[in-house]
Request: fold
Amino acid sequence: MQGLTGRPLPEPRRATLRTLRDPCSGRPIDRGLVLWFPGPASYTGEDAAEIHHHGGPAVVGALAEALRGLADLRPAEPGEFTRRAFLNGKLDLAQAEAIDDLVTASARAQLHQALEQAEGKLGRHCVAWRTTLLDALALLEAELDFAGEEADVASGLLEEARPGLLRVRSEIATALARAACGERLRLGLTVAVIGPPNAGKSSLVNRLAGREAAIVTPHPGTTRDVIEVALELEGMPLTILDTAGLREAADPVEAIGIERARERAGRADLVLLMLDATAPPGSLDGFPGREVDRLVLVNKVDAAPVPAWALDRPDVLAISCRTGAGIDLLLGRLAAMARDRLAGGETALVTRERHRVELAAAQAALDRLLEAPVGTELVLLAEELRTAVAALDRLTGRAGVDAVLDRIFARFCIGK
Ligand SMILES: Nc1nc2c(ncn2[C@@H]2O[C@H](COP(=O)(O)OP(=O)(O)OP(=O)(O)O)[C@@H](O)[C@H]2O)c(=O)[nH]1
Ligand SMILES: [Mg+2]
Reply:
């Protein structure tokens, strides 16, 4: 393979500073580092060259044009490098997915989870589970060879494999129990700020964001659409949603905004119900949000006292967006609620719906196998083991994944 200068590429993995020239005209384009990664020790497992240049549209444009002029070169598809790494056996499918998670991680906890996954944490468990299942399958098949198709579980043969199978089932159950945390951490926690008009919802969102993300005015009905603000709280990813004030709106545009507010609050992981101490409601009746996922904020306590019904309630915090009173307390409570829902510092094994679906399929097959009535034919039990192995193989990408590869890698950005 030839470099852009037309000379042979430098020694393996030694970075050299080169003048990068157009191979046709010989005109210089830039000076930059050229790195040569011979396969199979490269990211994709194939020979690869990297050019580190100064960037900027003119340099990128000229380099891309020069490279396109070389035979057999074309721009990479989204995720193509990681896809090649997967196809060449450098990564399993869960590791490949984690590369995308690493690229898109916006908070430290997401980064930590993605790194562990990229290092093959889930894949290693799958390999261990698979080995136990295949050992059990070998036992069943040996018995089938010996006793014929009529052999049944009454022979007691499964007893030898049972402890290992029970352990695999229990480990998969533990992983599934934490799956919701892993998926939520990957996607980030959504917190909807809702409440009557003028309560100070946008003021709170701006304070949390540390910038004027939403318009604040003394006029009720200022916010019409849902405004999203990304926030990192103690390393955890939160998306705060500012919403339209809830009331019977005569204005059709405002009514649509209110409908959206209710809908997003219904889907949010947490709800901050914002009330106005200067115009307090008589009670919390009729406001959306389940008590367990909701924190009630009585705002503007600089201007009016907390209403009597709200005193001494653990789910109510008195705050002032104007003076900042109670905001630190609110951040502490919000962080605690987020920690609860995002694995509490321990990283989850399952981070995607795809993983969860495959592990649930393996678990269901193991349930049918381990709870099979006495007398069930061994041939049926062996089939359940194969079903469980196939689910694990789809998870790691060892088999049966052709249909999902395009979907998985299309999400990646170009160059990954
Ligand atoms: N005294 C006082 N005024 C506040 C406080 N927080 C917000 N305000 C004022 O209350 C008014 C409404 O604030 P917003 O943040 O726009 O309220 P909102 O809930 O987003 O209102 P809508 O978008 O109309 O639903 C503005 O004039 C704010 O300056 C506070 O803590 N104390
Ligand atoms: Mg508002």
